[in-house]
């Protein structure tokens, strides 16, 4: 190094920045541990940073890559133990936290040296400078991450994206600190503040690059989500159309056969023939429209599931004023009720006790709102994460879009969706303003 004591940021300052930027993500994202456990981890992290400060002066130049990798590893463990996220996402957030910490520490130290507070005997002034800069910049980045956490990545980040983020972090770190190792390069600064400027600017460039990368990743994910939700909506609509193509013919045949069987009974028949007629009638009940709500689309959606439910001994009951749904588009009714019924059937069919295979649907009016409730027994544990039920399927890439399609459709009408689980009963509650 160039031997100038003012050039190097105190290791403890960098360590504090790394703790604060890690806390940005712990506070902004979903945690898997309690607040008390986070405090204990933070204290442990602070002790480790003090240890790093003690050993940093003993390191040779070739040890610095190992030393920095160790610091990154500690940050990763800190976030991994705190956040309820995939490992790939935590690696990405660790790289971002590290880059932000480098920028904050660099900016604060440059400002402190510029005002020469570090040369003064006033430790209070220097401490006040650090507190103000650290808190202000951390607050800015926290607001950015908090906004993005509402649209946080739910998919697994690919290896290519992780490698891209790692390359950005490594390249920026080398460029920002090259002046402190070698003054004879095209990227080195000639004077102290030239070196400071280059370090701060490169660190800021690294932060912006990683933010831009995440913005692009979020954009891609949103596009994929919209496509998959649209596919889920169209699938329910296609099911409805296919059922509608056959329902009229089935109803006609059902009524014709029913009248013919009644005529045969009136004409009189032997015991064997009566037994055969009874068997035919029992089989025909499978195709009879058992639920009438007043809305043709909802009736079709319920009837289309009845045959499967009877074979699986699933009981569907409904108390529904279907006319309240007349203001909704056919495809939207299919998206909400088709997905809700399919999810409920998928849940109750796993119950070993057939008497617990129950689904109940309600469509009622509450003041000027349409209230929709779909309840089903649920013996399997269900996690509600960020207001959404977490899919139990191992392959999460193509599952869970039915529930998201429901929420998306309800939001189109200015409504709200609430999922809850209590006493082995899973409930979907929807409230939408009634539009005439």
What is the secondary structure topology, with strand pairs?
Layout: H1 11-28, H2 35-56, H3 64-82, H4 87-114, H5 123-149, H6 159-177, H7 192-267, H8 271-284, H9 296-311, E1 315-320, H10 330-348, E2 358-366, E3 369-377, E4 384-385, E5 388-389, H11 401-412, E6 416-422, E7 425-433
Parallel strand pairs: 1-2
Antiparallel strand pairs: 2-3, 3-7, 4-5, 6-7
Helix pairs in contact: 1-2, 1-3, 1-4, 1-5, 2-3, 3-4, 4-5, 4-6, 4-7, 6-7, 7-8, 7-9, 7-10, 7-11, 9-10, 10-11
Q: What do these coordinates show?
A:
Helix content is 62%, strand content 10%. It has 11 helices and 7 strands. The strands form 2 sheets. The chain has a 5-stranded mixed β-sheet. The protein has a two-stranded antiparallel ribbon with strand order 4-5. With 436 residues, the chain is an alpha+beta fold. It has helices spanning 11-28, 35-56, 64-82, 87-114, 123-149, 159-177, 192-267, 271-284, 296-311, 330-348, 401-412, and strands at residues 315-320, 358-366, 369-377, 384-385, 388-389, 416-422, 425-433. It folds into 2 domains: 11-225, no CATH class; 289-433, Histidine kinase-like ATPase, C-terminal domain (Heat Shock Protein 90).
Distance linking N and C termini? 75 Å
Summing up helix and strand content along with how strands pair, one would put the structural category as: alpha+beta
Question: Shape from CA axes?
Answer: elongated
Number of strand elements: 7
Instruction: Output mean pLDDT.
Output: 81
């Amino acid at each position: 190094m160039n031997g100038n004591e003012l050039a190097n940021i105190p290791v403890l300052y960098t360590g504090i920045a790394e703790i604060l930027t890690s806390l940005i993500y712990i506070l902004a994202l979903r945690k898997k541990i309690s607040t008390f456990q986070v405090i204990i981890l933070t204290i442990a992290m602070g002790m480790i940073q003090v240890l790093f400060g003690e050993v940093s002066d003993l390191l040779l130049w070739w040890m610095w890559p190992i030393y920095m990798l160790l610091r990154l590893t500690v940050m990763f463990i800190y976030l991994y133990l705190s956040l309820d996220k995939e490992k790939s996402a935590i690696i990405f957030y660790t790289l971002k936290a590290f880059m932000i910490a480098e920028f904050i520490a660099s900016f604060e130290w440059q400002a402190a040296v510029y005002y020469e507070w570090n040369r003064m005997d006033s430790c209070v002034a220097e401490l006040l400078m650090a507190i103000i800069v650290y808190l202000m910049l951390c607050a800015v980045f926290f607001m950015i991450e908090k906004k993005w956490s509402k649209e946080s990545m739910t998919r697994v980040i690919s290896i290519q994206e992780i490698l891209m983020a790692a390359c950005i972090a490594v390249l920026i770190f080398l460029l920002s600190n090259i002046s402190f190792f070698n003054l004879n390069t095209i990227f080195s600064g000639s004077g102290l503040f030239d070196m400071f400027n280059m370090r701060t600017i490169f660190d800021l460039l690294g932060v912006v690059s990683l933010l831009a990368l995440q913005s692009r990743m979020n954009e891609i994910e949103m596009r994929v989500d919209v496509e998959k939700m649209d596919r889920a909506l169209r699938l329910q609509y296609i099911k409805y159309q296919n059922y509608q193509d056959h329902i009229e013919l089935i109803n006609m045949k059902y009524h014709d056969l029913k009248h013919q069987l009644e005529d045969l009974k009136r004409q009189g028949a032997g015991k064997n023939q009566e037994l055969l007629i009874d068997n035919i009638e029992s089989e025909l009940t499978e195709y009879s429209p058992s639920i009438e709500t007043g809305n043709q689309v909802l009736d079709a959606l319920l009837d289309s599931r009845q045959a499967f439910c009877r074979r699986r001994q699933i009981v569907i009951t409904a108390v529904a004023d279907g006319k309240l749904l007349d203001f909704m588009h056919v495809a939207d009714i299919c998206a909400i009720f088709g997905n809700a019924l399919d999810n409920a059937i998928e849940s109750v069919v796993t119950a070993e006790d057939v008497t617990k295979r129950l689904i109940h649907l309600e469509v009622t009016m509450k003041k000027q709102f349409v209230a929709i409730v779909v309840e089903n027994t649920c013996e399997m544990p269900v996690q509600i994460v960020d207001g959404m039920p977490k899919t139990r399927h191992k392959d999460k890439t193509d599952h869970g879009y039915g529930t998201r399609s429901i929420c998306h459709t309800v939001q189109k009408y200015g409504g709200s969706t609430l999922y809850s689980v209590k006493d082995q009963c899973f409930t979907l509650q929807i409230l939408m303003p009634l539009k005439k």
